[in-house]
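Moderator note: this is an archived Q&A kept for reference. The question asked for a predicted structure of one protein chain; the sequence and the answer are reproduced below.
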Amino acid sequence: MNLNGAGFTPRLKFGLFFSSPRISWRDKVSEAFRIFSPLKWKQRRMSKFSAGFIGLVSVLIVSAVVLVLSLGLLSRSYEETVMGFGEQESHRALGLANLCAELALIRLQSILNYAGGESIIEDGESCDILAVGGAGNFNRTIKTQSVVSQYHKKVKVEITRISPVLNIASWEEVPDF
């Protein structure tokens, strides 16, 4: 080695630069990566950890949103099912009250002084024909009520004439008599 500066390349402590002319710059770069690789691996591990953590948190957030939406839809479906069942039971109660009103009309046509006051059982459910208002052939009132599950329905039928032709003035569901 020439110490006068001609052809002398100082060797650094970490060995990045070599005095040998046979080593290419690619080898020098790979040597630099080898020296600093523990630092790089730590950074890579941290970036992989951060990416994994972010991915995990993202999956948890998306799962929570899907769970909340699913529970909301399930709750709404349950409520609609209960409401549909209630509506069906309400229609059954109204149909039963109308059935009693029709039976009262048939009995009133056959027995002019029919007074009502009876219960009729149909398919395990009952309806009541209450006392028939009025007397004779004109201005009579039929009141019926039924209960299916917790649904109460009441029907009021007003008749202007019974015979020779039955004339019904009104037939309506009423909240109370």
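Archived answer notes: The longest helix spans residues 25-110.
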